[in-house]
Every structure is written in C-alpha cells, then in structure tokens.
Amino acid sequence: MCALIYRERPASGAPVGLLILHHGRGTDEHDLLGLADVLDPERRLHVVSPRAPLTLPGSPGYHWYTVPRVGHPDPDTFRATYRELGAFHEETWARTGVGSSHTVLAGFSMGAVMSCALGLGGDRPLTAGIMAFSGFIPTVEGWQPELASRAALPVFIAHGRRDPIIDIAFARRAHELLDAAGLPVAYLESDGTHRIDPAHIPAATRWLAAATAANHRGPPPGPRA
Question: Is the pTM higher than 0.85?
Fold first, then answer.
C-alpha cells in the first residue's frame, strides 16, 4: 500500500473525472488544493492532492526529487518517487472508481515535472490529459517520454517568460517536442514569474472541462503557438 499522505476535494455529485494535483518544490498537499475550485468551479471532478515523499536537510516542505541541475532530476530519487507516485495513482483509481482515462495529471513546477513524467511514461496508463504550470519534461537517466502511443493525449502548458527558477526555454522545448509528435498542445506564455499566472486560469479552466467531458473525443480547445 502506498504511504503518500494526501488531501482531497470531492465532486458535488457523481464525478465525471479525477484531477490529481502535484504541488511544487518545498510545499505540501495543501498548496494547490484551493486551485480545485478555481479550475473546476462546478465541482464536476473529484480532486486529490498528494504530498511529495522527500524532506531535505535545510530545505522546507516536501520534494519529489533532488535537483543537481534544473531540468535533470537526480535519477535515484526521481525513480523512487516515480514508482511511489505511480502506485498512489493506481490506488486512487481503485479507491475512487474513476479510472486513468478520466484522470488529468496536473502540477506546478516540480509537480508539473512529475505530471509530465507519469503522464508520458511508457509504462504508465493513458490519462485524459496533462496540465503543466511552470515545469518541464525531465531529462533523466532511465526514463524517456513515450510519445508514439500518446498522439491523442491533450497537454496544457503555461509558463512565464520572466521565470527565474525554470527558464521559459524549458516550456518552449516541451511544446516543440510534443507538437512535433502530434500531441494536441495548448500552450500559453505570459510575462509572469515562477507562479501560476491568473491570466492563464480562464484558458486552463476551459481546457480542463473539455478534457474531462464525459463524451470527449477530440483535443480540448486552447491556443496553439
């Protein structure tokens, strides 16, 4: 049984989908939970927010992996968390009765990285979509994105051009990679810094509603750069 601590916000009725929110570096499972009512104001979705498993000496909060260099997670801590978070997702699908095909993996910063990793990993089930705020697709020994089998997977990427932590080049690179593989990518930039820019919320809300629509058959609406 997975030991990750989590918080959740139930849907107002029978959920039409599941939103799993992965917090950023140095925070915890409470950090993004308030985003649930912003992205899903009608409470159509069951929302779960797990706590990352690592604590690091001299660093507050919780972490998904250690960072020797931005864009390149430490392989050992990344692989351990990848397995643990994957097990958490599977237990959540079993517990809630909402499967992977109706699940959006979302996150901010380091949580966006884990959303991309679990959503694009070839050993992981297909989901309804990925939302990545201020993150990147990782470069890490022993892991590669599997894109050929995910040509219909919707992805939402939002990033600030003034981000001093994760440069905008990471978002642009992810967009180019996914777009070249044929994935439907909604891509947004702003003059924001390392945060979830309020200017991106309306598009993110529309994208999420479309990605989790009960009879969704095509890419959700959104800008394509």
Answer: yes
Strand ranges for 34-193 from DSSP E: 45-50, 54-56, 59-63, 103-108, 129-133, 155-160, 185-190
CA neighbor of 70 nearest in space, from 118, 135, 21, 131: 135
Residue 77 has pLDDT above 50, yes or no: yes
Structure tokens at 49: 């927010």
User: What sign has the CA pseudo-torsion 66, 67, 68, 72?
Assistant: positive
Residue with tokens 């994105």: 145
Task: Write down the residue that tokens 């309804």 correspond to.
Answer: 128
pLDDT band at residue 217 under the 50/70/90 scheme = very low
For 118, left (φ over 0), alpha (ψ -120 to 50), or beta? alpha
- pLDDT tens digits for range 11-60: 999 999 999 999 999 999 999 999 999 999 999 999 999 999 999 888 88
| Rounded Cα gap, residues 187 and 76, in angstroms | 31
pLDDT for residue 2: 65
Choose among 216, 182, 161: nearest CA to 44. 216
The letter for the amino acid at 58 is G
d(CA 175, CA 202): 20
Q: Return left, alpha or beta for 171; rule: phi > 0 is left, psi -120 to 50 is alpha, else beta.
A: alpha
Confidence of residue 162 (pLDDT cuts 50, 70, 90): very high
Cβ atoms of 23 and 53 within 8 Å: the answer is: no
The one-character DSSP state at 68 is S
Nearest to 37 by CA among 17, 13, 12: 12
Task: Round to whole Å and give the CA distance between 154 and 170.
Answer: 18
